[in-house]
Amino acid sequence: MNWDDDPTGTPAPDRLVGPVADREDQAVEAALRPKDLGEFIGQEKVREQLDLVLRAARARGATADHVLLSGAPGLGKTTLSMIIAAEMGAPIRITSGPAIQHAGDLAAILSSLQEGEVLFLDEIHRMSRPAEEMLYMAMEDFRVDVIVGKGPGATAIPLELPPFTLVGATTRAGLLPPPLRDRFGFTAHMEFYEPRELERVVHRSASLLDVEIDPAGAAEIAGRSRGTPRIANRLLRRVRDYAQVKADGIVTRDIAAAALAVYEVDARGLDRLDRAVLQALLKLFGGGPVGLSTLAVAVGEERETVEEVAEPFLVREGLLARTPRGRVATPAAWAHLGLTPPRSAPGGAASSAQQDLFGA
């Protein structure tokens, strides 16, 4: 119920636990999205802070400050932008950084905004530099300079803009230049969800989808959702399908576990690609270190796919470490796959990196 498109720009495989929203996800999400902050589950601090910002703006009869939302895909940045518009009683315009390649593209959007309108700019870190520089003045002074003509005869025509609220979303806040980041009146970082929060997400979505589910079944799905509501909803839909075909339609713990086993999502949320990376690292390279390109070849995937799609979750789960000498498996990775880690051999880069991780 709180999820967004993937802003990495890296083509990703069709994965049940992937953060990318496909067309089916987008259609279902539209029906499941909460409509106000009261319905929004999780992100307690962000909700509390944002509620104060919006209530104060409404009390003043003013446009809300510009908002920057950062965090991993699928955590609710798009949903919050829609809630901001709904709470302010304003229309919302949605676009993305890659769609704005020229300053003229941005000027056309800004000049058509209504007073108080919310402009949601997804993947804001991927906007072109000329458009980014135009945005500085638009955010601060509600004005843009439109350049007419070329060369020595070019002139800048100032264009006044109605007050608006910009909501920017990014998974890479560090790529935003300080002048842009400093112009946001409110910034928030979206955290991964705790299992109990995801259980509430699953129960709410099950109710909206008319799926009968017991608490144990919801807990099983939540525990395999990688801390991401979008993934929880996707797993719920696949478990629902299994329950309808293989059982009586009621989602229990056993039904959820059996369904997710069919879809190769294990108890920790790892899927086929995640396990393939770990198995190659452990069985072919003795736990590492190994270079990213070599590891990608071993699993038959592109380097970018391994780095952008599989590694972030494996690192966050403490199953893989990125070191200057390459990727190294942690003791938890050996335990998760039921393998025994080798004793560190004397000398060599590999044994040194393993000694660092195993505490030898």
Give a quick rundown of the structure.
By secondary structure, the protein is an alpha/beta fold. It folds into three domains: 33-189, Rossmann fold (3-Layer(aba) Sandwich); 195-262, Helicase, Ruva Protein, domain 3 (Orthogonal Bundle); 272-358, Winged helix-like DNA-binding domain superfamily/Winged helix DNA-binding domain (Arc Repressor Mutant, subunit A), CATH 1.10.10.10. The chain has helices at 23-32, 44-60, 77-88, 103-111, 129-141, 178-181, 195-208, 215-223, 229-246, 253-262, 272-284, 292-299, 303-316, 331-336, 349-358, and strands at 67-70, 92-96, 118-122, 143-148, 155-160, 165-170, 186-189, 320-323, 326-329.
Looking at this protein, list some descriptive labels.
Rossmann fold, Arc Repressor Mutant, subunit A, 3 domains, 15 helices, globular, disordered N terminus, disordered C terminus
| Total beta strands | 9
List the uncertain runs.
1-13, 345-360
CATH overall fold name of the largest domain: Rossmann fold
Q: Please report the distance between the alpha carbons of the first and last residues.
A: 44 Å
CATH C-level label of the largest domain: Alpha Beta
| Rounded Rg | 23 Å
SSE sequence, one letter per element: HHEHEHEHEEEHEHHHHHHHEEHH
Oligomer: single chain
Strand content: 5-15%
- Helical residue percent? 40-55%
Number of helices: 15
Q: What name goes with the CATH superfamily of the largest domain?
A: P-loop containing nucleotide triphosphate hydrolases
User: Rough shape?
Assistant: globular
Mean pLDDT: 82
Task: Kindly report the spatial arrangement of strands forming the biggest sheet.
Answer: 2-3-6-1-7
**Strand count, sense and closure of the main sheet?**
5 strands, parallel
Instruction: Kindly give the count of domains.
Output: 3
Going by helix content, strand content and strand pairing, the class is: alpha/beta
